[in-house]
Amino acid sequence: MGQWVKLICGASYQDMPTVRRLVMLYALAGVDCIDVAADRAVVAAARQGLEDAQWLSNYLGNRSYLIPDFPWLMVSLNDSEDPHFRKADFDAARCPAECDRPCEPICPTAAIQFQSPQVGGVTTDLCYGCGRCIAVCPVGNIEARPYLASPEAFSTGHLAQIDAVEIHTQTGHQAQFDQLWQRLQPWRAHLKLVSISCPDHDQVVPYLWDLYNTMAPLGVPLIWQTDGRPMSGDLGKGTTHATIRLAKKILEVGPPGYVQPAGGTNGYTVDKLIALGLVNKASSAALLDDVQPDQLPAPQPAGVTHHDSALARARTNISGIAYGSYGRSQVLPLLDAIDQELQPWLGKDFPDQLAQGQNTSLPYLKSPPSAARPPWQRLEDTALGQGLTLARQIVAQLKPEGQTPNGQTLDDPNP
User: What percent of the chain has pLDDT over 90?
Assistant: First the structure.
């Protein structure tokens, strides 16, 4: 694994139409994994997006980088209070009538809307807990309401729709992590990968070793997601330094597993990683194909520290990258237009079925107008074409432009 790319839709983001289109675009751009909220309806919308991508890939030719067998679908859980798992909340009646309402324009998903002074609020499904509104409220009227995502919300049947799980934790939360890990017992037979997301701390390395020993023997690949600046949403150069520092720390002395930066990743991150010699140019297809469960390291015996692990010392490269706010923000302004362009062919969701967490399969219900020219035949002047280009530019930072997902060049005569 050196070119593993993950899109983070948001652990608290539950706007199903937007999730569906984000998943579709980034699947076509070649991501390996898509991380969504642990909500059955959101998972169903994401699955719908993957099926949309598969259908469109038949018409896009070499503009499609959809990987074989689909990107893996991951859901995020938290073992305790965490900034990724919260929603903004306020009583609009307590807002000053003369307030300029800076919370409204600063919200990146338009979750806050006022119908008139002191009348309005937060559309919960659109809020992913970034906290920008809290910071700018002049009277401190907005608060964050945390919550715990529940693995029990998914029945055995629903687990078939999930490929991977990510657990958000923090140093010192060993007991809470252990409890959640036990609750995930019914999930484990269905999982192809486990990811642990944790921010930096002066005791983060021994904490991750404790988690590793709790989970081992795991039986599937393990990713340590280095959450440099959780929920930062900042696109500046300096934002990416924290996640790279943490990634280097885990590479040097952390437990066995793949290391993937997140939390502050943006358009500068890959260039910085390459400059530091932390990127392996091997194909992302090598991530899981070369890993066998019986090759995974055993738990460390009592008294053995991370310094004694040859496997930990041997790692020199990050194994991939995850994009959250940066990846979403590049294409969000185009999603409504893309939906309109695809409407005659892809139709609408079935809201009742999605709300029940059911996969609706492709609802191609409408016959397109006979004179209509589909957007994939005129990508140069469509929102779909622009969105695909933007998404592909992000993914191509680790998966080069001339490379298909299986690592072969487009002009390779021997696929």
Answer: 60
